[in-house]
Design a protein that fits this description.
- The chain is elongated, with a radius of gyration of 26 Å.
- The relative contact order is 0.11.
- Helix content is 48%, strand content 14%.
- A hairpin with a 4-residue loop joins strand 2 and strand 3.
- It is of the alpha+beta class.
- The chain has 13 helices and 9 strands.
- The strands form 2 sheets. The chain has a 7-stranded antiparallel β-sheet. A two-stranded antiparallel sheet has the order 7-8.
């Protein structure tokens, strides 16, 4: 869905965009001009896992072959990661030659498909003018949102602006939630999938009605019509991913997580259990903090804070300081919240992925309670 400056220096991309846009001001396409939507498949890095969308303008009579790319950002942006998490990071529209664009995706071992749009000469000129106007003005910047505004949604909007009889939308029925749609892309990246499912809150569980993924755009274009004719005149396959070259990692699997959690249970050590619960509490504070800080709707109302419960921190504190009344209240509250979370999560797409944490948390809460009252009993007998 996004790219990191296409492995070209950010300054070069901007200069190239400037030159192309300047060249294109008032420029008329010939009758031979073709406009296509480029869909790129998944890469092996998290930022590329959901694919990418771009728009190609190819006019042999004008010796023009440009790819307009809405997926560019600058790692050198001040406070880059804070801006990304908060949701006020600017992405921008840049251009590159199709030859360079295709070469980079071939080197990255990614699928590349091209759908030539059956537009009129007037529609082609309108779309070309809109794109070149954007790339040469402040409109080239836009505020990135994971679902609502990305390289795909921007391309969809531009194409829709020039269509007269139809609008490209996601294929119905929707049926699945955003989380159901996203999870298959992450099947080979266990910890990335786990992290995304933990940091995402309520919205990804809602009906996935927004057209925001490249492959969904590709499928919608396949069946779209302009008037009575198919919108896609021709589909070209430029590159197919070689599955044998996909990188795998022995540690990035559920087995290493299960081993670590099982170790916590088997060791059965008071300090280990308490450290685990404190870390869970810190994670819960982080999730709540991100939800309050970020403008991304996907991380709001994060019920996973009931699993990684901030109450575990005062619970451990009361345990070590033998505060019986406070410990009881905090323990019962933690247990009830864990139970409510389990019931709620049972109907979600990531239930099985988080079941091990639910089990470990329940066991540690039981052990903590048992240790506390054994300690109290021993103290009373000693008196």
């Amino acid at each position: 869905m996004i790219t990191i400056t296409q492995k070209v220096s950010f300054l070069f991309v901007l200069l190239f965009s400037f030159a192309n846009a300047l060249f294109a001001q008032g420029y008329r396409l010939s009758d031979q001009a073709k406009i296509s939507v480029i869909t790129c498949g998944s890469g092996d890095q998290l930022y590329s896992i959901f694919g990418h969308t771009a728009v190609r303008i190819h006019d042999t009579a004008r010796d023009l072959d440009i790819v307009f790319n809405y997926g560019t950002f600058d790692f050198n942006t001040p406070n880059f990661y804070l801006k990304f998490v908060k949701g006020d990071l600017d992405y921008l529209l840049t251009t590159t030659s199709f030859h360079q664009f295709l070469y980079e995706y071939q080197q990255d071992n990614r699928d590349v498909f091209e759908q030539e749009l059956a537009l009129t000469a007037e529609q082609k000129q309108q779309l070309f003018d809109k794109l070149t106007k954007n790339v040469f003005s402040e409109e080239r910047f836009y505020r990135y949102k994971f679902i609502d505004k990305n390289c795909t949604t921007m391309a969809v909007d531009k194409v829709n602006e020039v269509l007269s009889t139809t609008k490209i939308e996601k294929i119905k029925p929707y049926e699945k939630s955003y989380r159901h749609v996203l999870n298959p892309y992450l099947d080979n990246l266990f910890y990335e999938k786990l992290g995304i499912n933990i940091i995402f809150g309520h919205r990804p569980d809602t009906e996935a009605c927004q057209l925001f993924l490249p492959i969904e755009f590709f499928k919608s274009l396949e069946i779209a019509k302009e008037g009575s004719k198919p919108l896609v005149a021709k589909t070209i396959t430029h590159n197919i991913q070689d599955k044998t070259k996909i990188k795998t990692s022995w540690w990035n699997t559920s087995y290493t997580l299960l081993f670590g959690l099982l170790l916590v249970i088997v060791v059965n050590n008071k300090r280990v259990d308490n450290i685990y619960l404190i870390l869970c509490g810190i994670m819960g504070i982080f999730l709540l903090g991100v939800g309050l800080y970020s403008l991304h709707r996907e991380v709001l109302w994060n019920y996973n804070a009931l699993l990684f419960n901030p109450l575990y921190i005062p619970l451990v504190f009361f345990f070590w300081n033998e505060k019986t009344a406070q410990f009881k209240k905090m323990w019962y509250a933690s247990l009830v919240l864990l139970l409510l979370y389990t019931i709620y999560l049972a109907f979600k797409a990531h239930f099985l992925q988080l079941v091990p944490f639910i089990g470990v948390n329940a066991i540690l809460l039981y052990r903590l309670n048992k240790r506390f009252f054994l300690s109290i009993s021993e103290m009373e007998r000693a008196k």
